[in-house]
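Many introductory courses stop at the sequence. We go one step further.
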Amino acid sequence: MLTEFGKVFIFILIAILFVIFIVYVAKLIRPARPTTEKLKTYECGENPEGSPWIKFNIRFYVVALIFLIFDVEVVLLIPWALVYKNFGIAGFSVGLIFLLLLGLGMAYEWRKGDLEWEKPKVAPPVVKPNENNLDKKKEMVEV
């Protein structure tokens, strides 16, 4: 007599064995005729140019993450907008607090400069020599 966990374990075991079997059968059936054209990296129908091991600009990932964060938060507003009247002033104030925090997060990202595609270059500080010290050094060398 199997328990519920035993049934789940058998189901998972059968699923894993099925996947292994199908992959093995597919390997036996498929033709193996590699050519240089087939082994090339496929880039949407374009011929690849250069090495695929290039460094992507981190801004692509930052913009994508910021979009996901704010997109999920905006999606959470839809259920609130549908039922906030049922909760009265408390439900409305919770939604306003959420919107305020969302706005603060957006302002923080904007102020930080993560929403700008081209960040201004930060120039390293340059130490200008003091002219008085140069004159004293020249006098010391001359003496």
